[in-house]
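User: Let's play a game. I give you a shape written as C-alpha coordinates, and you guess the letters that built it. Ready? Here's round one.
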Protein backbone atom coordinates (compact mmCIF):
# COMPACT_ATOMS: atom_id res chain seq x y z
CA UNK A 1 0.00 0.00 0.00
CA UNK A 2 1.29 3.45 -0.96
CA UNK A 3 0.76 6.40 1.37
CA UNK A 4 0.52 9.91 -0.06
CA UNK A 5 1.52 12.84 2.13
CA UNK A 6 2.71 16.42 1.62
CA UNK A 7 4.78 18.03 4.39
CA UNK A 8 3.22 21.43 3.69
CA UNK A 9 0.17 20.17 5.55
CA UNK A 10 2.02 20.72 8.83
CA UNK A 11 2.25 24.49 8.31
CA UNK A 12 -1.41 25.06 9.25
CA UNK A 13 -1.26 25.39 13.03
CA UNK A 14 -4.11 27.44 14.52
CA UNK A 15 -4.25 27.60 18.30
CA UNK A 16 -7.95 27.92 19.12
CA UNK A 17 -11.46 27.26 17.93
CA UNK A 18 -14.84 28.26 19.37
CA UNK A 19 -16.71 25.78 21.61
CA UNK A 20 -19.89 26.85 23.43
CA UNK A 21 -19.03 30.45 22.67
CA UNK A 22 -15.49 30.37 24.09
CA UNK A 23 -12.03 29.87 22.55
CA UNK A 24 -10.61 26.44 23.35
CA UNK A 25 -7.33 24.73 22.28
CA UNK A 26 -7.90 23.16 18.87
CA UNK A 27 -7.34 19.38 18.60
CA UNK A 28 -6.74 19.51 14.84
CA UNK A 29 -2.99 20.12 15.19
CA UNK A 30 0.13 19.19 13.21
CA UNK A 31 0.86 16.71 16.02
CA UNK A 32 -1.71 14.41 14.41
CA UNK A 33 0.57 13.87 11.44
CA UNK A 34 3.37 12.18 13.38
CA UNK A 35 0.92 9.88 15.14
CA UNK A 36 -0.71 8.85 11.87
CA UNK A 37 2.63 8.33 10.13
CA UNK A 38 3.72 6.12 13.02
CA UNK A 39 0.74 3.85 12.36
CA UNK A 40 1.49 3.77 8.62
CA UNK A 41 5.18 3.00 9.06
CA UNK A 42 4.50 0.04 11.32
CA UNK A 43 2.74 -1.52 8.35
CA UNK A 44 5.47 -0.66 5.87
CA UNK A 45 5.12 0.60 2.33
CA UNK A 46 6.36 3.78 0.65
CA UNK A 47 5.31 7.30 1.62
CA UNK A 48 5.26 9.53 -1.46
CA UNK A 49 4.67 13.24 -2.00
CA UNK A 50 2.01 14.40 -4.47
CA UNK A 51 2.51 16.95 -7.22
CA UNK A 52 0.78 20.32 -6.70
CA UNK A 53 -2.92 20.34 -7.46
CA UNK A 54 -4.22 22.42 -10.35
CA UNK A 55 -7.01 24.96 -10.23
CA UNK A 56 -9.07 22.93 -12.68
CA UNK A 57 -9.03 19.96 -10.30
CA UNK A 58 -10.13 22.07 -7.33
CA UNK A 59 -12.84 23.65 -9.50
CA UNK A 60 -14.43 20.23 -10.06
CA UNK A 61 -15.73 20.60 -6.50
CA UNK A 62 -15.25 24.21 -5.33
CA UNK A 63 -16.55 27.49 -6.72
CA UNK A 64 -13.89 29.77 -8.25
CA UNK A 65 -14.80 32.75 -6.08
CA UNK A 66 -14.44 30.60 -2.96
CA UNK A 67 -10.96 29.56 -4.06
CA UNK A 68 -10.08 33.22 -4.68
CA UNK A 69 -11.39 34.06 -1.23
CA UNK A 70 -9.19 31.43 0.46
CA UNK A 71 -6.15 32.42 -1.60
CA UNK A 72 -6.38 36.13 -0.71
CA UNK A 73 -8.11 36.09 2.68
CA UNK A 74 -5.13 36.42 4.98
CA UNK A 75 -3.48 39.28 3.08
CA UNK A 76 -6.75 41.19 2.72
CA UNK A 77 -7.62 40.75 6.40
CA UNK A 78 -4.26 42.12 7.50
CA UNK A 79 -5.03 45.38 5.72
CA UNK A 80 -8.11 46.02 7.88
CA UNK A 81 -7.61 48.67 10.57
CA UNK A 82 -8.16 47.55 14.17
CA UNK A 83 -9.10 44.00 13.15
CA UNK A 84 -8.60 40.76 15.07
CA UNK A 85 -5.27 39.02 14.38
CA UNK A 86 -6.99 36.47 12.14
CA UNK A 87 -10.19 36.39 10.08
CA UNK A 88 -13.35 36.18 12.21
CA UNK A 89 -16.83 36.75 10.73
CA UNK A 90 -19.19 39.02 12.64
CA UNK A 91 -22.10 38.76 10.20
CA UNK A 92 -23.42 35.69 8.37
CA UNK A 93 -25.31 35.23 5.08
CA UNK A 94 -28.18 33.45 6.79
CA UNK A 95 -30.52 33.88 3.82
CA UNK A 96 -28.34 32.28 1.19
CA UNK A 97 -31.14 29.96 0.08
CA UNK A 98 -33.83 32.65 0.04
CA UNK A 99 -35.50 34.31 -2.95
CA UNK A 100 -34.16 36.69 -3.95
CA UNK A 101 -30.75 35.39 -2.84
CA UNK A 102 -28.51 37.80 -0.93
CA UNK A 103 -25.92 39.78 -2.85
CA UNK A 104 -22.24 38.79 -2.72
CA UNK A 105 -20.20 41.53 -1.00
CA UNK A 106 -16.84 42.97 -1.98
CA UNK A 107 -15.86 43.46 1.68
CA UNK A 108 -13.57 40.82 3.15
CA UNK A 109 -15.60 41.01 6.37
CA UNK A 110 -18.77 40.24 4.45
CA UNK A 111 -17.08 37.46 2.50
CA UNK A 112 -15.96 35.87 5.76
CA UNK A 113 -19.62 35.72 6.76
CA UNK A 114 -20.40 34.07 3.43
CA UNK A 115 -17.60 31.50 3.31
CA UNK A 116 -16.65 30.72 6.95
CA UNK A 117 -19.49 28.61 8.27
CA UNK A 118 -18.73 28.32 11.97
CA UNK A 119 -16.22 28.96 14.74
CA UNK A 120 -14.16 25.87 13.98
CA UNK A 121 -12.39 26.89 10.79
CA UNK A 122 -9.69 29.29 12.01
CA UNK A 123 -7.49 30.75 9.29
CA UNK A 124 -3.76 31.48 9.52
CA UNK A 125 -1.28 32.77 6.95
CA UNK A 126 -0.48 29.15 6.04
CA UNK A 127 -4.00 27.69 5.98
CA UNK A 128 -4.62 27.82 2.25
CA UNK A 129 -1.28 26.29 1.25
CA UNK A 130 -1.81 23.49 3.77
CA UNK A 131 -5.37 22.87 2.56
CA UNK A 132 -4.16 22.74 -1.05
CA UNK A 133 -1.45 20.27 -0.05
CA UNK A 134 -4.09 18.15 1.65
CA UNK A 135 -6.26 18.28 -1.48
CA UNK A 136 -3.23 17.41 -3.62
CA UNK A 137 -2.71 14.35 -1.44
CA UNK A 138 -6.26 13.12 -2.04
CA UNK A 139 -6.17 13.86 -5.77
CA UNK A 140 -2.89 11.98 -6.19
CA UNK A 141 -4.29 9.06 -4.23
CA UNK A 142 -7.15 8.97 -6.75
CA UNK A 143 -4.63 9.02 -9.58
CA UNK A 144 -2.84 6.02 -8.08
CA UNK A 145 -6.09 4.07 -8.27
CA UNK A 146 -6.66 5.21 -11.85
CA UNK A 147 -3.16 3.93 -12.61
CA UNK A 148 -4.00 0.48 -11.23
CA UNK A 149 -3.26 0.49 -7.49
CA UNK A 150 -5.82 -1.49 -5.49
CA UNK A 151 -5.43 0.38 -2.19
CA UNK A 152 -3.90 3.76 -1.37
CA UNK A 153 -3.92 5.91 1.77
CA UNK A 154 -4.10 9.71 1.51
CA UNK A 155 -2.87 11.25 4.76
CA UNK A 156 -4.89 14.45 4.48
CA UNK A 157 -4.66 17.18 7.08
CA UNK A 158 -6.49 19.53 7.48
CA UNK A 159 -9.47 17.24 6.91
CA UNK A 160 -12.18 18.03 4.39
CA UNK A 161 -15.62 16.50 4.77
CA UNK A 162 -17.32 19.54 6.35
CA UNK A 163 -16.21 21.82 3.49
CA UNK A 164 -18.91 22.49 0.89
CA UNK A 165 -18.49 23.96 -2.58
CA UNK A 166 -18.10 27.49 -1.20
CA UNK A 167 -17.93 27.05 2.56
CA UNK A 168 -15.31 26.19 5.19
CA UNK A 169 -16.41 24.61 8.48
CA UNK A 170 -15.40 22.10 11.14
CA UNK A 171 -11.60 22.28 10.65
CA UNK A 172 -12.18 21.79 6.87
CA UNK A 173 -11.38 24.15 3.98
CA UNK A 174 -11.22 21.99 0.84
CA UNK A 175 -13.19 18.76 0.55
CA UNK A 176 -10.52 16.13 -0.01
CA UNK A 177 -12.82 13.11 -0.34
CA UNK A 178 -15.09 14.95 -2.79
CA UNK A 179 -12.09 16.07 -4.86
CA UNK A 180 -10.84 12.48 -5.00
CA UNK A 181 -14.30 11.25 -6.02
CA UNK A 182 -14.50 13.91 -8.73
CA UNK A 183 -11.10 12.84 -10.07
CA UNK A 184 -12.15 9.19 -10.14
CA UNK A 185 -15.45 10.05 -11.82
CA UNK A 186 -13.64 12.13 -14.44
CA UNK A 187 -11.42 9.09 -14.99
CA UNK A 188 -14.46 6.99 -15.88
CA UNK A 189 -14.92 5.20 -12.55
CA UNK A 190 -18.32 4.73 -10.93
CA UNK A 191 -17.56 6.07 -7.46
CA UNK A 192 -19.04 5.82 -3.99
CA UNK A 193 -18.00 7.55 -0.75
CA UNK A 194 -18.33 5.88 2.64
CA UNK A 195 -17.75 8.30 5.51
CA UNK A 196 -17.05 6.67 8.89
CA UNK A 197 -16.07 9.82 10.79
CA UNK A 198 -17.97 10.36 14.05
CA UNK A 199 -19.23 13.65 12.59
CA UNK A 200 -21.56 13.71 9.60
CA UNK A 201 -19.84 14.68 6.35
CA UNK A 202 -22.23 17.52 5.61
CA UNK A 203 -19.96 19.21 3.08
CA UNK A 204 -19.60 16.02 1.06
CA UNK A 205 -23.34 15.46 1.20
CA UNK A 206 -24.02 19.01 -0.04
CA UNK A 207 -21.61 18.70 -2.96
CA UNK A 208 -23.25 15.54 -4.33
CA UNK A 209 -26.82 15.99 -3.02
CA UNK A 210 -28.32 16.67 -6.46
CA UNK A 211 -26.30 14.00 -8.30
CA UNK A 212 -26.83 10.31 -8.98
CA UNK A 213 -23.36 9.49 -10.30
CA UNK A 214 -21.69 9.46 -6.84
CA UNK A 215 -23.30 7.62 -3.92
CA UNK A 216 -22.62 9.17 -0.50
CA UNK A 217 -23.05 7.12 2.69
CA UNK A 218 -22.28 8.40 6.20
CA UNK A 219 -22.29 6.62 9.59
CA UNK A 220 -22.04 9.19 12.38
CA UNK A 221 -23.24 10.39 15.76
CA UNK A 222 -26.84 11.60 15.80
CA UNK A 223 -26.72 15.34 14.98
CA UNK A 224 -29.59 16.18 17.33
CA UNK A 225 -26.94 16.63 20.03
CA UNK A 226 -23.69 16.47 18.07
CA UNK A 227 -21.87 18.56 15.47
CA UNK A 228 -22.80 19.53 12.75
CA UNK A 229 -26.31 19.65 14.32
CA UNK A 230 -28.25 20.77 11.24
CA UNK A 231 -27.40 17.96 8.79
CA UNK A 232 -26.95 14.21 8.94
CA UNK A 233 -30.54 13.12 9.59
CA UNK A 234 -31.85 9.86 8.15
CA UNK A 235 -34.52 11.60 6.05
CA UNK A 236 -31.85 13.40 3.98
CA UNK A 237 -31.79 11.14 0.91
CA UNK A 238 -30.76 13.46 -1.92
CA UNK A 239 -32.71 15.85 -4.12
CA UNK A 240 -33.97 15.77 -7.70
CA UNK A 241 -31.70 13.48 -9.72
CA UNK A 242 -29.83 12.70 -6.51
CA UNK A 243 -32.80 11.39 -4.57
CA UNK A 244 -31.93 7.99 -3.12
CA UNK A 245 -28.19 8.48 -3.62
CA UNK A 246 -27.45 9.83 -0.14
CA UNK A 247 -27.72 7.58 2.91
CA UNK A 248 -27.29 8.81 6.49
CA UNK A 249 -27.04 6.36 9.37
CA UNK A 250 -27.03 8.39 12.61
CA UNK A 251 -26.21 6.47 15.80
CA UNK A 252 -26.42 7.23 19.51
CA UNK A 253 -23.42 8.59 21.36
CA UNK A 254 -21.48 5.81 23.01
CA UNK A 255 -22.18 3.34 20.18
CA UNK A 256 -20.00 0.23 20.51
CA UNK A 257 -18.78 -2.23 17.88
CA UNK A 258 -21.90 -4.38 17.85
CA UNK A 259 -24.29 -1.51 17.10
CA UNK A 260 -21.77 0.09 14.78
CA UNK A 261 -21.41 -3.05 12.68
CA UNK A 262 -25.19 -3.33 12.37
CA UNK A 263 -25.23 0.11 10.73
CA UNK A 264 -22.13 -0.71 8.71
CA UNK A 265 -23.86 -3.77 7.26
CA UNK A 266 -26.71 -1.53 6.07
CA UNK A 267 -24.18 0.83 4.51
CA UNK A 268 -22.32 -2.00 2.79
CA UNK A 269 -25.54 -3.44 1.38
CA UNK A 270 -26.41 -0.07 -0.17
CA UNK A 271 -22.90 0.24 -1.57
CA UNK A 272 -23.10 -3.23 -3.10
CA UNK A 273 -26.46 -2.34 -4.65
CA UNK A 274 -24.93 0.80 -6.21
CA UNK A 275 -22.16 -1.41 -7.67
CA UNK A 276 -19.34 1.13 -7.77
CA UNK A 277 -16.02 0.53 -9.51
CA UNK A 278 -14.12 2.17 -6.66
CA UNK A 279 -14.71 3.27 -3.06
CA UNK A 280 -13.48 6.42 -1.35
CA UNK A 281 -13.36 5.78 2.39
CA UNK A 282 -13.52 9.01 4.41
CA UNK A 283 -11.67 7.52 7.36
CA UNK A 284 -12.48 9.36 10.55
CA UNK A 285 -10.68 7.74 13.47
CA UNK A 286 -12.58 9.92 15.93
CA UNK A 287 -15.04 7.06 16.44
CA UNK A 288 -12.45 5.75 18.93
CA UNK A 289 -13.39 5.48 22.59
CA UNK A 290 -10.37 7.58 23.61
CA UNK A 291 -10.77 10.32 21.00
CA UNK A 292 -11.15 13.80 22.52
CA UNK A 293 -14.67 14.15 21.05
CA UNK A 294 -15.95 11.06 22.93
CA UNK A 295 -18.64 10.28 20.37
CA UNK A 296 -18.47 6.50 19.97
CA UNK A 297 -16.87 3.65 21.92
CA UNK A 298 -14.80 1.87 19.26
CA UNK A 299 -11.69 0.18 20.71
CA UNK A 300 -8.43 -0.30 18.84
CA UNK A 301 -9.05 -3.98 17.89
CA UNK A 302 -12.53 -3.02 16.65
CA UNK A 303 -11.01 -0.98 13.83
CA UNK A 304 -9.64 -4.16 12.29
CA UNK A 305 -13.12 -5.69 12.18
CA UNK A 306 -14.55 -2.53 10.62
CA UNK A 307 -11.81 -2.53 8.01
CA UNK A 308 -12.29 -6.23 7.29
CA UNK A 309 -15.99 -5.75 6.60
CA UNK A 310 -15.35 -2.85 4.24
CA UNK A 311 -12.65 -4.85 2.45
CA UNK A 312 -15.27 -7.53 1.89
CA UNK A 313 -16.74 -5.38 -0.89
CA UNK A 314 -13.69 -6.32 -2.94
CA UNK A 315 -13.33 -2.82 -4.41
CA UNK A 316 -10.29 -0.72 -5.22
CA UNK A 317 -10.05 1.60 -2.25
CA UNK A 318 -8.78 5.11 -1.58
CA UNK A 319 -8.58 5.85 2.14
CA UNK A 320 -8.80 9.60 2.78
CA UNK A 321 -7.95 10.71 6.30
CA UNK A 322 -10.62 12.77 8.03
CA UNK A 323 -10.90 13.15 11.83
CA UNK A 324 -9.06 11.39 14.61
CA UNK A 325 -7.32 13.61 17.09
CA UNK A 326 -4.31 13.32 19.41
CA UNK A 327 -4.81 10.41 21.80
CA UNK A 328 -2.60 7.57 23.08
CA UNK A 329 -3.94 5.15 20.46
CA UNK A 330 -4.37 7.30 17.35
CA UNK A 331 -1.53 5.64 15.43
CA UNK A 332 -2.55 2.19 16.61
CA UNK A 333 -6.15 2.83 15.55
CA UNK A 334 -5.03 3.73 12.03
CA UNK A 335 -2.78 0.69 11.91
CA UNK A 336 -5.66 -1.55 13.01
CA UNK A 337 -8.04 -0.07 10.42
CA UNK A 338 -5.50 -0.48 7.63
CA UNK A 339 -4.79 -4.05 8.67
CA UNK A 340 -8.47 -4.85 8.27
CA UNK A 341 -8.76 -3.02 4.96
CA UNK A 342 -5.74 -4.86 3.59
CA UNK A 343 -6.92 -8.28 4.78
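Assistant: Ready! My guess for every position:
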Amino acid sequence: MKTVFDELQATHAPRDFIVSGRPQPIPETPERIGMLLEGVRRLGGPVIAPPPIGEETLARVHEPRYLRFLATLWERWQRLPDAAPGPVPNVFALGRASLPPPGYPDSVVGQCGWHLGDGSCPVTAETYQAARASASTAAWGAQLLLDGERVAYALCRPPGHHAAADLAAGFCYLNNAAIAAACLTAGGRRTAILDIDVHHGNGTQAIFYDRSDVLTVSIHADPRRFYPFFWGYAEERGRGPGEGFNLNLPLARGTDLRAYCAALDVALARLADFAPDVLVLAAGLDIAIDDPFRGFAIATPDFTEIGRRIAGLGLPLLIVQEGGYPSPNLGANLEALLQGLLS
